């Protein structure tokens, strides 16, 4: 239940101090209703988390253990890390993980820096063409990536960056939606502090770095997390742009593993666990920002 | 002296007391706004807007990956009309919208109602239900390929219950249905969070009044909750229908790169990917296909949003 303690509830009053269970309006919840709710919650839990657990269990089952038995056996009788070693022997999985990490880290840095700068320019600076600049980002946000992905690929070829990790990062490295998120965050700050700094002689960079930026840390964290998750999980674009197996990211490597060793379920299971574990850990630590991002993104998107 | 680089209406009366109106003073660093916006504009221009324009232009040419194309007029679009694969792709992507969207509008709302009440441990459940959203689509796809395998967990359970094994991943229609189920499974938690925010804004007086009037839970759901979150339902409908029409990864992973038996499970974006990439890619034809994806996506968005407006007036 450690997860429960870390997350603040989404927008509702805290649970009442009294020991008995009450609802959000302070009324007592009837026992049969409570039981029904927990039964339903556990059923959905089995549906949403069960598949991950089954995958983990499969990955821990040794070569001699039957993974096809009916009725199924949910727990490995002799848990072993053997399959993880085999994944590393079959494909350079740690290199792929490192590639994914590089791509994701680069995506976080470029998105945070680029969208904070552009967002500040759209929200706070006055210049000719600001409306047009805003419109450019709004239009870009509405263009479905899948509809231009072939042209993105030919553009990458023209730049000679296809089949490189830089090519994987570039198209999404300053997302239009992130720019608009940052713009809104800056617009919501009160002007007065920046005015005071201006009167004190702070120039535009100082105002941006020392005053505005520290006040939008929350939104910046949301941008960072979604940039990381987006890059780590992305599939279609790396699949198109990368052809050299030594440059693969984890998702493309997994697809390759599945395509080549589809009949070795233990092996594929171990590969998927390697790919998903870091993100689940990240999510467990930073849930607040994940949920906040959904709210802000949906309003914009 | 005036706050020329700070924008907005609130400035004038605040810090600049009795001075000239701020607009007349030139900015101190005339280049800085563009310096700030430049990286974002550059990336957006080169990798979003330019590819969009070149998609439109390429769709009227016979360009290939290694051969610069020539203008061929509407030939690509005429070919499209006679391409069986195009119609299969359009059919599957459309079916995907029809299958996935109703489920993603309704199920997450019910789920949000289930996790809305603050009972002990509820934050754990909320987080747990969100886990599939965090996982990569590749991981999710492969997990379900194994679960739905001929010898996998679900078939073992079905056999243990006495129903017998089902070829989820070998039949054309079952494959498409399974992929839809996976999309819904992965999207549940995301839309649940959107609905939770909307539900928090439903005034509880409405529920109380309905209770006093003797309305049961189902009736209160239909007469109080649904109207109150209707605009959120439209938003979820728009978001999920656009995403569903562009489906690629789920079907690619579950049916394979060639799109299931005889390619019958190919979706439109899968066809774009297959046609336009690689060294022999037909960029021109794939661009024409992409334009169809683009037009339908925008049309879907407008359709859903217009349906919303019409109902309101």
From TrEMBL, chain A:
<feature type="transmembrane region" description="Helical">
    <location>
        <begin position="35"/>
        <end position="54"/>
    </location>
</feature>
<feature type="transmembrane region" description="Helical">
    <location>
        <begin position="211"/>
        <end position="232"/>
    </location>
</feature>
<feature type="transmembrane region" description="Helical">
    <location>
        <begin position="135"/>
        <end position="154"/>
    </location>
</feature>
<keyword id="KW-1003">Cell membrane</keyword>
<keyword id="KW-0812">Transmembrane</keyword>
<feature type="domain" description="ABC transmembrane type-1">
    <location>
        <begin position="97"/>
        <end position="286"/>
    </location>
</feature>
<dbReference type="InterPro" id="IPR035906">
    <property type="entry name" value="MetI-like_sf"/>
</dbReference>
<dbReference type="InterPro" id="IPR000515">
    <property type="entry name" value="MetI-like"/>
</dbReference>
<comment type="similarity">
    <text>Belongs to the binding-protein-dependent transport system permease family.</text>
</comment>
<keyword id="KW-1133">Transmembrane helix</keyword>
<keyword id="KW-0472">Membrane</keyword>
<feature type="transmembrane region" description="Helical">
    <location>
        <begin position="103"/>
        <end position="123"/>
    </location>
</feature>
<feature type="transmembrane region" description="Helical">
    <location>
        <begin position="160"/>
        <end position="181"/>
    </location>
</feature>
<feature type="transmembrane region" description="Helical">
    <location>
        <begin position="267"/>
        <end position="286"/>
    </location>
</feature>
<keyword id="KW-0813">Transport</keyword>
<protein>
    <submittedName>
        <fullName>Carbohydrate ABC transporter permease</fullName>
    </submittedName>
</protein>
<dbReference type="Pfam" id="PF00528">
    <property type="entry name" value="BPD_transp_1"/>
</dbReference>
Automatic annotation (TrEMBL), chain B:
<feature type="transmembrane region" description="Helical">
    <location>
        <begin position="95"/>
        <end position="115"/>
    </location>
</feature>
<keyword id="KW-0472">Membrane</keyword>
<feature type="transmembrane region" description="Helical">
    <location>
        <begin position="173"/>
        <end position="200"/>
    </location>
</feature>
<keyword id="KW-0813">Transport</keyword>
<dbReference type="InterPro" id="IPR000515">
    <property type="entry name" value="MetI-like"/>
</dbReference>
<keyword id="KW-1133">Transmembrane helix</keyword>
<keyword id="KW-1003">Cell membrane</keyword>
<comment type="similarity">
    <text>Belongs to the binding-protein-dependent transport system permease family.</text>
</comment>
<keyword id="KW-0812">Transmembrane</keyword>
<dbReference type="Pfam" id="PF00528">
    <property type="entry name" value="BPD_transp_1"/>
</dbReference>
<feature type="transmembrane region" description="Helical">
    <location>
        <begin position="283"/>
        <end position="305"/>
    </location>
</feature>
<feature type="region of interest" description="Disordered">
    <location>
        <begin position="1"/>
        <end position="24"/>
    </location>
</feature>
<protein>
    <submittedName>
        <fullName>Sugar ABC transporter permease</fullName>
    </submittedName>
</protein>
<feature type="transmembrane region" description="Helical">
    <location>
        <begin position="127"/>
        <end position="147"/>
    </location>
</feature>
<dbReference type="InterPro" id="IPR035906">
    <property type="entry name" value="MetI-like_sf"/>
</dbReference>
<feature type="transmembrane region" description="Helical">
    <location>
        <begin position="221"/>
        <end position="245"/>
    </location>
</feature>
<dbReference type="InterPro" id="IPR051393">
    <property type="entry name" value="ABC_transporter_permease"/>
</dbReference>
<feature type="domain" description="ABC transmembrane type-1">
    <location>
        <begin position="90"/>
        <end position="304"/>
    </location>
</feature>
<feature type="transmembrane region" description="Helical">
    <location>
        <begin position="33"/>
        <end position="53"/>
    </location>
</feature>
């Amino acid at each position: 239940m450690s997860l429960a303690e870390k997350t603040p509830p989404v927008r509702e009053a805290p649970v009442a101090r009294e020991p008995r269970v009450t609802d959000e309006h302070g009324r007592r919840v009837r026992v049969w209703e409570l039981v029904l709710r927990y039964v339903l919650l556990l059923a959905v839990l089995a549906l949403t988390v069960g598949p991950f657990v089954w995958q983990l269990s499969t990955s821990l089952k040794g070569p001699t253990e039957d993974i096809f038995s009916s009725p199924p056996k949910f727990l490995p009788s002799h848990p072993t890390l053997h399959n993880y070693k085999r994944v590393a022997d079959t494909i350079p999985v740690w290199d792929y993980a490192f590639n994914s990490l590089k791509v994701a880290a680069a995506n976080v840095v470029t998105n945070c820096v680029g969208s904070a700068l552009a967002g500040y320019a759209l929200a706070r600076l006055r210049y000719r063409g600001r409306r047009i600049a805003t419109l450019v980002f709004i239009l870009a946000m509405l263009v479905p990536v899948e509809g231009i992905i072939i042209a993105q690929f030919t553009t990458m070829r023209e730049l000679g960056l296809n089949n490189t990790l830089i090519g994987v990062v570039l198209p999404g490295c300053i997302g239009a939606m992130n720019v608009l998120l940052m713009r809104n965050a800056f617009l919501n700050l009160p002007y007065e502090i920046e005015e005071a700094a201006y009167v004190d002689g702070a120039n535009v960079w100082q105002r941006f770095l020392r005053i505005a930026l520290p006040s939008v840390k929350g939104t910046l964290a949301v941008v960072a997390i979604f940039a990381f998750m987006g890059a780590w999980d992305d599939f279609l674009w790396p699949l198109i742009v990368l052809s050299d197996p030594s440059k693969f990211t984890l998702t493309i490597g997994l697809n390759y593993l599945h395509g080549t060793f589809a009949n070795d379920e233990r092996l594929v299971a171990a590969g998927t666990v390697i790919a998903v574990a870091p993100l689940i850990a990240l999510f467990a630590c930073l849930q607040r920002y994940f949920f906040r991002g959904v709210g802000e993104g949906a309003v914009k998107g | 002296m005036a706050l020329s680089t700070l924008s907005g209406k609130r400035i004038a009366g605040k810090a600049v007391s009795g001075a000239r109106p701020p607009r007349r003073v030139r900015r101190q660093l005339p280049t800085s706004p563009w310096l700030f916006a430049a990286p974002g504009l550059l990336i957006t221009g080169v990798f979003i807007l330019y590819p969009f324009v070149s998609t439109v232009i390429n769709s009227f040419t016979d360009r290939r990956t290694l051969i610069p194309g020539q203008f061929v007029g509407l030939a690509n679009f005429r070919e499209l009309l006679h391409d069986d694969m195009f119609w299969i792709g359009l059919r599957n992507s459309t079916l995907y919208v029809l299958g996935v969207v109703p489920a993603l509008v309704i199920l997450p709302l019910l789920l949000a109602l289930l996790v809305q009440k603050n009972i002990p441990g509820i934050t754990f459940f909320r987080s747990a239900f969100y886990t599939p959203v965090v996982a990569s689509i590749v991981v999710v796809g492969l997990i379900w390929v194994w679960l739905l395998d001929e010898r996998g967990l679900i078939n073992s359970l079905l056999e243990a219950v006495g129903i017998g094994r089902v070829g989820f991943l070998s039949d054309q229609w079952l494959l498409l249905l399974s992929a839809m189920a996976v999309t819904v499974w992965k999207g549940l938690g995301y839309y649940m969070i959107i609905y939770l925010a909307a539900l928090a804004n439903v005034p509880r007086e409405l529920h109380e009044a309905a209770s006093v009037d003797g309305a049961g839970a189902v009736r209160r759901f239909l007469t109080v909750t649904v109207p109150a979150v209707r605009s959120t339902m439209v938003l979820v409908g728009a978001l999920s229908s656009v995403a569903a029409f562009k489906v690629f990864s789920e079907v690619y992973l579950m049916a394979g790169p060639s799109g299931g038996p005889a390619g019958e499970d190919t979706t439109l974006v899968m066809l774009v990917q297959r046609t336009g990439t690689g060294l022999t890619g037909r960029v021109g034809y794939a661009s024409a296909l992409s334009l169809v994806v683009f037009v339908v996506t925008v049309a879907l968005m407008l359709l859903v949003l217009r349906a919303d407006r019409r109902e309101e007036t």
